[in-house]
Design goal:
The chain has a 6-stranded antiparallel beta sheet with strand order 1-12-4-10-7-8. Helices cover 5% and strands 50% of the residues. It has one domain (18-144): Jelly Rolls. The protein has helices spanning 5-8, 99-102; strands at residues 10-19, 24-25, 29-30, 34-48, 50-57, 65-67, 69-73, 90-92, 95-97, 106-112, 122-127, 131-144.
Length: 156
């Protein structure tokens, strides 16, 4: 197996960087095809307190169960000293994204796929409409169950 990240991991773009205003669901991905995933959210503007959930379901786009996930936040804002180091791990099934804490920062969520509810391998990250403005990009980096030069797709 190669040492190249893109040959050892699935890199899935879940939400393009733009102003999503109030309430948005990311694209779903099939976490049953991987053993572990990290979801990286890079925030710009954040006005109000959106609520983030990681939902699982039996099919793409189905949000049946709010899963408990581990998360940690960058120690400082983007492109500054310690903006690339992260605080302690915490857990949540419903994380309130306050502007004072998350604006211009990176948030990382992680789960093992065997932590998902049985029979619900599809994952959708949802951001509530509680924030009036939210500028964010979301990417998942996933460890495939089986290595390959070109891993199986995780999106439908």
């Amino acid at each position: 197996m190669s040492n190249m990240l893109s040959e050892n991991m699935n890199i899935v773009h879940l939400l393009e960087a733009q102003d999503h205003n109030a309430g948005v669901d990311c694209d779903s991905f099939h976490a049953g095809r991987v053993s572990h995933f990290a979801i990286i959210l890079s925030f710009g503007e954040l006005t109000g307190d959106a609520v983030l959930t990681v939902e699982s379901g039996a099919t793409a786009g189905t949000k049946t169960t709010a899963e408990t996930f581990r998360y940690r936040t960058a120690d400082a804002v983007l492109k500054t000293a310690t903006g690339d180091t992260y605080g302690d791990w915490a857990t949540s099934a419903s994380l309130t994204l306050t502007a004072a804490t998350y604006e211009d920062k990176t948030l990382i969520l992680e789960m093992d796929s065997d932590e998902l509810t049985d029979g619900q391998p599809w994952v959708t990250v949802a951001l509530s409409s509680a924030a009036s403005e939210i500028f964010v990009a979301v990417i998942a980096v996933c460890t495939p169950r089986f290595g390959a030069h070109d891993p199986l797709t995780l999106i439908s």
